[in-house]
Design brief:
The chain is α+β, with helices and mostly antiparallel strands and 352 residues long. The chain has 11 helices and 10 strands.
Length: 352
């Protein structure tokens, strides 16, 4: 039995890695991170346009609406490359959660209007789950939504309250967005205040299903960040010379790199499997999405810390820039459930 990626999936990964390697330099990351730290959208518009032309926002959208018509495993592969590059573009909300929610909506006319715009990169959607401080009355929504993910530069917001999703236009009268300064300055988090704003309900959409997809997408970016940190550590250990020989020849450094690899590769396998199961066996997806994110988050914490230790004092400097990948893993850890919360859900699901 072959557990590797298919030839098509490998080609997708290689195409995105090539584009991201060319376009996402450390200088670009620093520039966009400065915007995020200033409370502005960190999205690199030029990069977003390039990735849109490669089909990023339309990965999960049917080709009828201009998308690529691919599955969650392909989205995982792309998310992994985005995390590896610490790419300053939206992904989990705009490219995964929103398209799946709209596709699942019972209103076919909504598919044609919105999915076509998302696939073309014209519509970017910030998502907030569990927005309990919202009230809906006669088709209008009021209140507050915290932790709106991918909020910067969004044209629409997909808000879930009381188990129902509502889509609102970002530029509608009564919408007030304040961008936070998140721990990861390359990702966007917002706080919405809404005052009787027209809201379109999406009927028949499973909140659990959208949440599962979001967790898998976040886990994919985390393992990508870990992959970069491991490669950077091995390369640094081979080049850095102390006492007349590369530090990678010292047993302690070898063990640190080996332990990072031992944490990373099982996490990659589990995240890939979660992406596969999401499409092929929906009944097993809830458990596997929890397992995948929990393991990826734990690997992210260990690998990001250990990578900095391998680099020694240089690991703490902006010259190496490791902190951008460290922050990507740490930020993702606390979205849609941290490992401790997820393990409680896993235990409950299995009757433990």
């Amino acid at each position: 039995m072959d557990f590797t990626l298919s030839e098509e999936q490998t080609m997708i990964a290689e195409a995105f890695r090539g584009q991201l390697t060319r376009d996402v330099t450390l200088d670009v990351i620093r520039t966009q991170a400065a915007l995020g730290q200033a409370g502005k959208s960190p999205t690199d518009q030029g990069l977003w346009q390039q990735l849109t032309e490669m089909g990023l926002p339309g990965l999960l959208i049917d080709d009828t609406y201009g998308g690529a018509g691919l599955g969650m495993l392909e989205a995982v592969v792309v998310g992994q490359e985005l995390g590896r590059a610490a790419a300053p573009v939206p992904f989990a909300a705009t490219c995964v959660m929103a398209p799946l929610a709209i596709t699942a909506s019972a209103e076919v006319e909504q598919h044609k209007t919105w999915l076509t715009q998302i696939a073309a990169g014209e519509m970017r959607v910030g998502v907030a789950l569990g927005a309990d401080m919202l009230q809906v009355d006669s088709g209008r929504i009021s209140g507050h939504a915290r932790f709106v993910f991918d909020a910067g530069g969004a044209t629409h917001f997909l808000l879930e309250t009381g188990g129902v999703f509502y889509l609102v236009e970002a530029h509608a009268s009564g919408v007030y967005l304040t961008l936070e300064r998140p721990f990861d300055p390359l990702q966007s988090l917002g706080h919405l205040a809404l005052d009787t704003v027209p809201a379109t309900p999406l009927s028949g959409v499973s909140v659990d299903r959208v949440t599962e997809a979001g967790r898998i997408a976040l886990a994919a970016q985390t393992i990508g960040a870990c992959e970069f940190l491991l490669d950077a550590s091995v390369e640094y250990a081979a080049d850095r010379v102390q006492f007349g020989r590369p530090i990678g020849s010292f047993q302690a450094i070898k063990h640190m790199c080996a332990e990072m690899a031992a944490q990373l590769y099982p996490a990659i396998s589990l995240v890939w499997y979660a992406g596969y199961v999401f499409d092929k066996d929906a009944a097993r997806s809830p458990l596997n999405s929890l397992l995948a994110k929990a393991l990826a988050d734990e690997a992210g914490r260990f690998i990001s810390r250990t990578a900095i230790e391998v680099h020694g004092g240089m690991g703490y400097t902006d010259l190496q820039g490791l902190h951008y990948w460290y922050k990507r893993a740490a930020f993702n850890r606390n979205l849609l459930g941290n490992p401790e919360e997820l393990r409680q859900d896993i235990a409950a699901m299995q009757g433990i």
